[in-house]
Amino acid sequence: xxxxxxxAPTHPPATWSLAGRTMVVTxxxxxxxxxxxxxxxxxxxxxxxxxxTPSSAGDCFVECDVTxxxxxxxxxxxxxxxxxxxxxxxxxxxxxxxxxxxxxTDASWEATLAxxxxxxxxxxxxALPQLRERGRGSVIxxxxxxxxxxxxxxxAAYAAAKGGVIALTRQLAHEFAAEGVRVNCxxxxxxxxxxxxxxxxxxxxxxxAAAIPLRRLARPDEVATTICFLATDAASYVTGxxxxxxxxxx
Length: 250
Hints:
alpha/beta, disordered N terminus, 44% helix, 250 residues, 7-stranded parallel sheet, 8 helices, Rossmann fold
């Protein structure tokens, strides 16, 4: 008879290592993305930052606009040449314009979906051959409480895009599982980043924090910890999951 206890790892901490692995983080120059870059490097990963804003946080920086197919393909080719085939992809690049539905223009709607949803599609498509080659690939998409419930600080376009990211995550997890490529989504709540500081006043941030059961906004590193966990072997049986990191806010 199978005994679950006999199969338990004898050294669990080793499963949290990212040593020898290559990770790509889009939007890795600030906020949650930068926190992921720093934490992944501490865990031993080689990390490439894909962003429009230069960064020295990773092992290499590649300027990349995720709305441009040619730029995305070139970026992943450059990562392969510089750091080796990609093991993990963190789709973090995003924009979150504020405003109510009646204020949404065609241009704002299309721009938000182009970055927040179609950008994820482009990056996964470009990374997939490398992930398959490694045979242990992990894709972590950064969703939002906006896609799970509603947006507290951004527009309906942002909520729609993040809802699409969740649906895309589940579909890709199903399609890629047999090839050893796991796909998961992390949905932060309200995080102390430049985006929320731009979108709401200090008084509004205080009111939002008071509505969170933990009574504060998240730090970027608290979200990054969950993202990096999903890239490790400690999460080897986790795919198609949507993990909330929101302090209990629903």
